[in-house]
Design a protein that fits this description.
Blueprint lengths: L1 H9 L3 H23 L4 H21 L1
Helix pairs in contact: 2-3
Length: 62
């Protein structure tokens, strides 16, 4: 997950990098809140896999 960020910094697009890292921060907070909540194990796994798909899509968009 670090290589797109390093690539963006090298291209002096730090504004894009800040937006990207902010999105990842929000997703990681969402993931930890899902873990801490009282969901069943299967729904936790489904939600976490959806967040993982979103993260992959973010890296592909950038």
């Amino acid at each position: 997950m670090t290589s797109p960020g390093i690539f963006l910094i090298n291209n002096n697009q730090k504004g894009y990098y800040r937006k990207y890292s902010l999105k990842l921060d929000i997703l990681s907070r969402l993931r930890s809140s899902i873990f801490n909540s009282a969901f069943g194990k299967t729904s936790k796994l489904i939600l976490l896999s959806l967040i993982g798909i979103v993260q992959v899509n973010l890296t592909l968009l950038i």
